[in-house]
Model the fold of this input.
Amino acid sequence: MKRPLLCYTLFLVILLTACKKDELQAPLPVTDNLSFSGTFKSIHSETIAGSVSLNISKGHYDCWTNFPYGHGAGKVETSNSTINFIDTLFIPVPAIYGPSYILSGKYHYEFDGKNLKLKTENRMSTIAYHLTLSDCENAHYGILKNLTGLDGCAWVIQLSDSIRLEPINIEAFNIELIENKSVCVQFRERADLGSYCMVGKVVELDFIE
Done:
């Protein structure tokens, strides 16, 4: 009797462990408005790492990395533990720059309601993304873009709908300015002020983090 009892006990442990792991997996609501930021790592003959931002809205996505030409956009779909980024932006990357590591194609994903992990493998490398959901309640999702190379431009904020904001007081906030960094912002449009950069709306920030 001891052997069947032992087998039954082991079966229960395995079953409960599997159920507990499944409870940690939350569905990713790709029809909602979500904003993530984090890092990625590619492991092959050498390890390459960088930063990544991801905005999802109504079944579509925008993705940025800190690599040259690191911008992808298109439709996003999920099925069980697979997420498919269908990139329709098609930005050609010159060979001298190599891959930009934007999200494109199918990935295995894990989501616990806050943290999103993505992983893909091919014959050349394994690429893992670790992202955290930004909580922008009563605010707008956006990413920082450095346009200081253009006449009259400085740091701007690109919202999830691609509208750009030209903040006049971003220096007043204690925030580290990093290209493609995800931020949450509240702002007021300043139609009484003109723009030298002329890439978006001139705004005064009330909040940014």
